[in-house]
Amino acid sequence: MVHKARTRGALTVLVLILTLLGMQIPGAGAGGASTARAADNPAEVVQEVRINDRMLDVAVRSPEIDGLTHTRWVRLLLPTGWDRHAQRTWPTLWLLHGGGGNHKDWTANTHVEELAAGRDVMVVMPETSGCSGYSDWWNHGKGGAPAWETYLLGELRPLLERTYRAGTDRAAVAGLSMGGQGALKFAAAHPGMFKAAASYSGAVNPLYKSPDGGFNGPDAVKLGGLGCLTDWKRLWGEPGYPFDTTDPSDVRRRSIWEHNSPLHQAASLAGTPLYVSYGNGTDSGTGWQWGGPPPSPARCTDPAAHGSEAVERAIYGMNGQLRARLAELRIPATVCASEGTHTWPYWERELVASFPMLMRAVSA
């Protein structure tokens, strides 16, 4: 596969800012209740496209997906010997895209196809929306579509198990930015479902308040709403103080935001192997390229957040809070804070660095 790194520029930065929106799974109906709601699993496969010997794109229709077509794609990297009629099943690695992304992102921007070659694992790369938040949306208290958590974990997951021989008890999850938030949120909301979780530049605290007047978590959600041409309050409502009011007692829908925040739900990550990486907003080059030796631990220098790239500076602040909270709870995590920006070369490096841990968790 030819590596296709994205060009950088103002438009790319704007799209990646929307990635911050990836923060949590909205309030009522999230977690176990959402999975139960999908017990009858109305999701169905409507199309398959074989990309190559190992890559299969599957279009899935579900009423939990917003929009007139109610259809989204999922890209599968198939292990050697895979057959839909096999007597055995295969463990899965879920890779979640960021804001503005889709099911093609990981194969278009990393060497995941080569990385997974020879591993006894199925890689699952689902498409949501550019501002999904990997959440069952609040919708001003009405609930309903889009219900991304219900769709992914309550419908798509069992559909893959039933139709494509995905295993039922050996899965790991990882994601970048919005997907990093989703990976840790899913692991916290469904203990035991995923045997390991990794976040690369994850938007892990939607209630982040910048200490220097920079990007706040709710700012990113609002921009995400613009990018999706929808009312941002559909996700989790207004968070209240200190973002929407000067009255400390006016917390509005803060409980929804906290319920869906990896930072605020960190205690539920106990027992799950974790990998957390983030940069400081400074682009000095990754110091690594595909085909070379594994990324060196020397890259994890815990630099100060002095870079000029606004998105990763906010990510740096969020992840510093999560790191401190995990330490307070005495929850082990492999953490790499380094120089870096909100771009694919850094995310691919961290995918490669975390891949052995993810594979150990599913024994692939």
Automatic annotation (TrEMBL):
Name the Gene3D superfamilies on file.
alpha/beta hydrolase
**InterPro entries xrefs:** AB_hydrolase_fold, Esterase-like, Mycobacterial_A85_antigen
What SUPFAM superfamilies has UniProt attached to this entry?
A: alpha/beta-Hydrolases (SSF53474)
Give one Pfam family: Esterase
The identity of this protein, by name, is Esterase family protein
